[in-house]
Design goal:
Layout: H1 2-22, H2 45-51, H3 56-64, E1 73-80, E2 89-95, E3 101-107, E4 113-119, H4 121-124, H5 130-135, H6 140-150, E5 155-164, E6 167-175, E7 180-186, E8 191-192
Antiparallel strand pairs: 1-2, 2-3, 3-4, 5-6, 6-7, 7-8
């Protein structure tokens, strides 16, 4: 009886040893890498943007909540890959009712504001006026959702604005499974082909 008990204990210890050998424990002191900030340098911008933990609409919401002045609207947003100086981030330009233009850097992995820079509004508004954005029925965030839906899913990672007649028009880049698409959305929220 004692022999069987010792044999069972030995087999149990042996099987536990095999199980431990098959699973590799995490190294002590390691941390999970933030995918967008530590992405492969050979990846294209849209491929890296898909790995960002923070979405473009979230980054725009964060940027629009910044500043002393209320009522700011995002008018431009770009995803930027990490480099030696900056983390992977969204660069979001917000125009305020007073005409002030501010660019906010939002970390694409944490959602934290890490950079603020006042922009000369004249350089940006050679063809658009702040009133054009206030008159638009569709905000940039709404245009992003429309573009993502039109693209059949994916993740919007870049948006710019242009003028179509007297109204704004949004150009949204969406990162899909294996390609990027550009979707144009009018100030009325309709997709422009």
């Amino acid at each position: 009886m004692l022999d069987r008990l010792m044999l069972s204990a030995g087999l149990l210890a042996l099987s536990a040893g095999f199980a431990a050998a098959q699973s590799t424990p995490p190294a002590v002191g390691t941390q999970t890498l933030m995918p967008a900030t530590h992405a492969d340098d050979n990846m294209k911008e849209w491929q890296v943007a898909k790995t960002a933990k923070v979405s473009l609409p979230q980054a725009i919401s964060t940027a629009e909540m910044q500043g002393d002045e209320k009522g700011g609207r995002a008018i431009d947003a770009d995803f930027e890959k990490a480099d030696s100086k900056d983390p992977a981030h969204y660069s979001v330009k917000v125009v305020y009712p007073s005409g002030k233009l501010v660019e906010y850097g939002i970390n694409a992995d944490t959602g934290a504001l890490y950079k603020t820079e006042n922009q000369p509004i004249e350089r940006y508004f050679t063809f658009l006026k702040p009133a054009n954005f206030n008159e638009a029925k569709t905000s940039l965030k709404e245009a992003l959702a429309i573009a993502e839906q039109k693209a059949g899913g994916g993740k919007a990672y870049e948006a710019s604005v242009s003028k179509d007649g007297k109204a704004v028009q949004y150009q949204i880049k969406v990162a899909g499974m294996d390609k990027e698409q550009t979707i144009n959305v009018g100030a009325d929220g309709k997709v422009i082909d």
